[in-house]
Amino acid sequence: MLPSALADLIEFHAPLSVVQREQGGATTLLTPGVNVLALNATFLPGDVTGVNLRDVQDWHEGQGLPPLVAWAGGEVPAGLKVQEVARVRVGDWAGQPNPPDASVVVEQVGRLHLSAWAGALCAAHGTPGWAAGLARQLAGPLEAAAGAFALLMAYRNGQPVGSLLWQARGAGGAAHLWGAADAGVGAALLNAAAGLGEDLTVTLPAAVEWDGPFLHAVTDIRYGLLVPALGAPTQRR
To answer: At a CB cut-off of 8 Å and minimum separation 6, what does 176 contact?
Structure first.
């Protein structure tokens, strides 16, 4: 069984992905043409002895994608050989009562603004060239799941500085896909998302500026590339 934080990420990203696959307790999401880690990863249980890791690697590479895996916790599961590439945290966002940057305005936008939304998100992550592909990929799933997701955009002095995708979860919600020009913008986006429901589960960077009482029930999530048995780590293609 997957840890609850990984299951939460899958619940959010699976409707947005192209391929979903389960094998030996692991779940794979693949979305060629999109550079979102959680949309192109195999999520691993704490015990990987039942997972055919060679098959996972072959499956990723057969789709033209690197063998990216994700696991929960600070320690690499026994038997897993990886080159770590990213760390994030998943937890419950309690909100900040005093926004750190009052100049940031957050608005909910419709799907007609998806290109601008994707542009703001990718620009915030320093990957503007991926915006068009992300918008194309999300267009269909968001239309099919109308009402299940909401697009938020942040502006400072009239200029877009971040965006966030919110998913409805009963009386609450989740926000695992977002980008912000700085921490002040990020807090404004997350506060706005928290206002859409009674509670909010989020993904946050591992950076220290996100440490604080506004985050609870935190689980560390790490992403890494599977290391082939006879060589250096497989490189991103």
So the answer is: 8, 9, 12, 13, 38, 90, 165, 167, 201, 202, 203
Written as one letter, the residue type at 154 is A
- Rounded to two decimals, the pTM is 0.93
Show me where the domains of the chain are located.
Answer: 4-89+219-226, 95-212
Q: Are the C-beta atoms of 124 and 162 separated by less than 8 Å?
A: yes
SS3 of residue 26 by DSSP? strand
**Helices 131-144, 114-124: inter-axial angle, 10-degree rounding:** 130
Q: Which fold has domain 95-212?
A: Aminopeptidase (3.40.630)
Do 41 and 223 contact (CB within 8 A), yes or no?
yes
Cα–chain-centroid distance for residue 64? Answer: 20
Going residue by residue through the chain, which has 237 residues, state the pLDDT in tens, using 9 for 90 and above: 899 999 999 999 999 999 999 999 999 999 999 999 999 999 999 999 999 999 999 999 999 999 999 999 988 999 899 999 999 999 999 877 777 788 999 999 999 999 999 999 999 999 999 999 999 999 999 999 989 999 999 999 999 999 999 999 999 999 999 999 999 999 999 999 999 999 999 999 988 777 777 888 899 999 999 997 644 444 433
The encoded tokens of residue 20 equal 């979903």
Residues comprising the chain, all counted: 237
